[in-house]
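User: My instructor asked us to take a sequence, write out its structure as tokens, and then describe one feature of it. I'm not sure where to start. Here is the sequence I was given:
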Amino acid sequence: MTPAHRRPGRLPRRAVLGLAGLAAIPAATVGLQQWRSKTPPAEATTAPPVRDVPAVVQPSATPKPRPVVTSGGGPVPFRPGKALLGSYLDLNGMSAEQALALRRQQTGRDQRIVHVFYGWTDTLPHRLPGLPDKAVPMVSWRGTRHEDILNGSADALIARAARRLIRFGRPVLLRWGWEMNGSWYAWGGARNGNNPGGYVESWRRLHGIFAEEGATNVSWVWSTNWNNSPNVDWNKFQRYYPGDRYVDWVGVSGYNLHRELPGALFRGIYDTYSAKKPIMISEVGSVDRGGRTKADWIERFAEWVEQHPAVGAVAWFDTDTHPGYHERWRVDTDAASLAAYREMARSPRFAG
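Assistant: Let's start with the prediction itself. The structure tokens for your sequence are:
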């Protein structure tokens, strides 16, 4: 995002988002690499073809259910069977308070996560305007090159950030250096000598400084992109994992751009970490291809979350202010989409 699209003191939308290049690339050869500073190549993910079922199927043992986490989350605790539902909410012509009030009126409930974006050198917030009493702030804090952290020159900046979040006086989700397995951010392995280890050490250094400052109200959200770009062995998302003691929530970004099903977007992270960490869908949205396409995808997403009990939080990308791209990501682009989102928001699964 250019400086002209920034508001003082925070990133009002994903600072380096950019999808214009995807429109010119066939969907069969690109995938969901959403909202980037420079649109990277990837591969499309679609539903597998339906295979013929044989007339006679031999009986087989019933597969055992996968074990899933039943606790965790740190200062923002995971509640089995429940999922916090909130969003990054930035609506054209509205203040934060007005946008929150509109969604409250439309859905009959408050946001449980209020998601905001900040730059690496920004002063992090200690309050958010209009934050509902029961809502959890989630601060997505941009990173920087690994060497700028590991050489100690940023220690004072990191300590200042910790002290700011302490001042919230309530639990806070901190999502630092997200989508590190992509090639589009300064803190990704591809921009740091193809070395995921530098990211791991940077994360641990931040975590240690926050601990020294007494930031016991911070839940750490380690959040990948749904697929790896480049898709090579050294860049697998698992190589960026800092370790269980340094992570409270495992998050993942995934958008329906080319008719990706929810399982295609989120299954990899879920299957890898759901036995030991609560899962957060930390960025999600769907394009609208006319008719009920967007509403149907929201319904499919709600069904997928219902079937995956380790998902404990969802943050929608609910905005119409993204520069340079025609898609309106807000949930109320049409009556059917809003109705599907409202039904999801009111379901027992999202009563967290």
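For the description part of your assignment, you could build on this observation: The first strand starts at residue 84 and ends at 90. Try explaining in your own words what that tells you about the chain.
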